[in-house]
Amino acid sequence: xxxxGTADTAADDLVAVFIDLENLALGAGENLPGQAxxxxxxxxxxxxxxxxxxSIRRAYADWSRPEFAKHQHNLAxxxxxxxxxxxxxxxxxxxADILMAVDAMEVLIxxxxxxxxxxxxxxxxxxxLVQRLRExxxxxxxxxxxxxxxxxxxxxxxxYKYWGTIVAAVNPAVRAEVGAKFDxxxxxxLVVEAMEESPDASxxxxxxxxxxxxxxxxFDERNYGSKSFRVLLSRLPGLVxxxxxxxxxxxxxxxxxxxxxxxxxxxxxxxx
Length: 272
Prior knowledge:
Blueprint: E1 14-20, H1 21-31, H2 41-49, E2 53-61, H3 66-69, H4 72-77, E3 81-84, H5 95-110, E4 114-120, H6 127-135, E5 139-144, H7 151-156, E6 159-162, H8 163-170, H9 175-179, H10 184-195, E7 202-204, H11 205-215, H12 229-234, E8 240-244, E9 251-255
Parallel strand pairs: 1-2, 1-4, 2-3, 4-5, 5-6
Antiparallel strand pairs: 7-9, 8-9
Helix pairs in contact: 2-8, 10-11
């Protein structure tokens, strides 16, 4: 089950994947406590293939520590280069952040053909890096755990995917557990907010999803157990009406309840 990259993602797009393995391992262990392997091979495989040709794949950790070293095999089997993080003095806490950020900026300069940067990290300290990459016109997809992902980091990414949803895509046994962490009411509010910005009473499905991602980069229909955006909308019959678009393969979406008119400030004349 793919992660549903957006429509402008092509299979031959060049992607650079950077994994803060220490951050991921600690967060995944808490988010999926019942799993013997919270970072499975299949989830890493899906991560590296879903947004295009991941020509650069790197994972950062202190591999001398057993809690991180145990993941080396699955990483290496997916062609991910293991980068050793060595800590000294005051830089101990942010050593992986700094090394990963420096490498990402180097790739930005030396590989201008890379269009998408995937950062597997949840720390808000990565936010300036994401903002700079986007200033250079790059697409940045963040990945992290729902419990530990920084709201600041999510807000600046083009998209943000939750690791639990990725694992659920390859391991049906955890889908119910992962899906229980998401409330369908959040989707309903997001749909209404997006449709309020539509210039017409109805909108195409692709426009609606793009607007929802702009409002909330962490939106993903798979968080709610739906295989596609169309399937997710079909679960909201009291909110939206979905019809086939006669002029394109897309669908047309209309709110069942009328849209609220945006408040306007009355034009008052000057009083004498």
